[in-house]
Each structure stands twice: as C-alpha cells, then as structure tokens.
Amino acid sequence: MRTALASKFSSQAVLSFEKAVDNCIGILEQELSRRLDQVLDLEKWLQFWTSDVAAETSLGQRIGFMEQDCDVRDMIQGLRGGFRYAAAVGQVPAAHAWLIGNRRLVDFVTKFLGFPDPPGEYIAVDLAGGGTVSVTLGAIFYHLMKSPSAYQKLRNEIDHQDQKGLLSPIPSHEQTLAMPYLGAVLKEAMRLCPITTLPLERIVPDGGVEIGGHHVPAGTKIGVTAPAIHSNPEIFGQDVAQFRPERWLEGDAAQIKVMEKCFFGARIQWSKGSRACLGKGFALLQMRKLVTQMVRRFDFEWASSKPDWELKYYWVTEQHGLLARFKQREVLHVAASHPAHP
After folding, report:
1. In whole angstroms, how far apart are CA 260 and each of 3, 264, 265?
2. Hey, is 245 helix, strand or coil?
3. Which segments of 62-145 are extended strands (E)?
4. 94-98, 184-188, 223-227: which has the highest mean pLDDT?
C-alpha cells in the first residue's frame, strides 16, 4: 500500500495539489470574511479547511465542511474517535481482536445500533492527514496570538515580501520558502505542541544496549515522548517553555544542529527511512501557504474569556477552547510578476 501511495505524494505530485489548496484557502477567506468580529472556534475551522483540502486532492472535489459550516456526516468526529481508539488499543494490542478487529461485533453495531461503516470519504480524509495538519496549524495560530512580538515579526516578514511584489494573490509554496522566520514559526509550534505525545516504541536488539549508563536487555520495549525532549533546557535553552522562533535562527550553529537532531517534528512527527511520512511535503505546503495568507489578510486575536486553551493527549493531540476573533486587513500586495502555479 505504501508503494502505491508513494507516487501520490512525490515532490512533483505535491506541487500539482497546490491549485486545490488555493481553492480551499479562497473558500476559508470568504467564510472568515462573513464572520468578522465574531468569536470563532478556530480549531473547528482549521479542521474543516484541512478536511476539505484532503477531499479535493483525494476525491477531486470538496465535501463542503466550510461552506456548510458543519462536520458533514460526522466524518471529522469519526476520525477523532479513531485516534482515541488507537491511543488506547495501541497500549493493549490484544484488545483489538475483541473490538473493531472483531468483524462480527462491527456487523452487529452497524446493523442493530445504526452505526454506519466508515464511508470512503472518511478514509480519504484520514489518508491525507487532515486531522494532524490542523493540530499544527492550531498551535501556530495559538502561539502567534499569545506572542505579540513573534506575530509582529512574522507579519513584517510577509509584508516585506508583499511590498516588493514577491507574493502572488495567494502565495505559491515556492514564494513562502523565501521567508525563514515563517519556517522557524512552524518548527517552534511543532516543538511546543507535537502532534503525538505517545512514544513510538522500539525493541532492543540482541545484545542489549547502554542508555544513560544503564544496560537495557534485549527484547525490552523502549520509547521516549516528544514533550520530554522538547522541554529539555540543555537542548533548547533555559527559556524552553517560551514560544521563541528565533532560537532556530540565532545563536551557536553547533547548538542549532543539536536542536535539529533532537527535534521530534523531524523524527517523530514525520519519522525517517521506511517509516517516513509520505505526506510531509504536502503538509508543510499547506501550513506555509495558509499561515502566510491568514497573517497577510487578517488581524486575529485571542477571544476566549479563559486565559488558555485545553489540550487532551490521545494518539493525536486534541485542542479545545481555541477561540479567535478576525478582522479584515488592508491587502498590501503588488501581484508577483510570475504565476503561482505552472
């Protein structure tokens, strides 16, 4: 199956999806423009956006989450339930045979309790990774709203490119790659809010291994979580709890190299080798383009009466209480001389 999907997410194929991403950015802009100065559940809208992007690139058309302002056929909630199930059953794999892995039980639930089998659209959304992309997008917008200096620096970088006529009406992926602070914002958001906080376990090979001065015998299951590494001040600095994208751009080159090596955004979120995420390039394309356009087109601010959001940790991190208020911004762009897409 991995081989069959690999061509779908090749570098060339990913760029061919850019038009679909632009279509969905345009729809989201329209929907947000209709709801200016209202308190919006931003987590919901990011889920809608990523799910419609996934559908348009996989099925050739949007499902309509954004236009209908609802979770069509409860597909997003179903995906969330799947992630919760994976978190629990992943710790007790034998339980799967007695639950969803039991076809008789699934048939009973479907027939007598009225629960439908997952539709094809659900599978498409799942494969495209819309649910995981929205987590990182949520973290980006949350930390920008909570970190005015970082928000302003990113806006200055985008406006600078805009005023020079280097951004298309909807920026191309290539154009966003010329903005280093944007890349640092993405990394810092993934550091502070990794998609998954569960360890991806490995089995110690024959002969055992020495870890931190301790001998771990062969056959032992070991793992480490992203928050444990990402909150280590010896790696990321004494201000490790602070959202500071500059840490990825400034300072000692050797230390930045250590940070890159220990950054789970590369090793866990995307993984490597035969387990590398096929959709990494497409996910980064979506995030770079959407964040650039939202910062460019809107002012957004924290709109909850509570001081913070709520995170729940299953297989994929869930975000609750991500409330924002959007205001229209004057567009500064002078259209780039070259088209956004070939």
Report:
1. 28, 9, 9
2. helix
3. none
4. 184-188
Beta strands in the chain (DSSP E): 39-41, 202-203, 209-211, 214-216, 221-222, 298-302, 310-313, 317-320, 323-328
Q: How far apart are CA 216 and CA 121, in angstroms?
A: 44
Spatial separation of the C-alpha atoms in residues 79 and 119, rounded to whole Å: 11
pLDDT at 270: 52
Please give the model's pTM, rounded to 2 decimal places. Answer: 0.85
Q: With beta carbons less than 8 A apart as the criterion, state whether 107 and 38 touch.
A: no
Q: Treating both helix axes as pointing N-terminal to C-terminal, what angle do 130-146 and 148-163 enclose, rounded to 10 degrees?
A: 110
Residues present in the chain in total:
342
Q: Which residues contact 25 (CB under 8 A, 6 or more apart)?
A: 49, 170, 289, 290, 293
Nearest to 322 by CA among 76, 138, 71, 151: 138
Tracing tokens 């920026």 back to the chain, one arrives at 171
Q: What does each C-alpha distance from 315 to 81, 96, 231, 241, 263 come to in angstroms?
A: 10, 15, 20, 23, 19
* Buried-exposed string 213-247: b where 16+ CB fall within 10 A, e elsewhere: eeeeeeeeeeeebbeebbeeeeebeeebeebbbeb
DSSP secondary structure of 281-335: HHHHHHHHHHHHHHHHHEEEEE--SSSS-EEEESSSEEEE--EEEEEE-------
Nearest to 57 by CA among 129, 131, 138: 129
- What pLDDT is recorded for position 339? 46
Distance separating alpha carbons of residues 342 and 338, to the nearest angstrom: 9
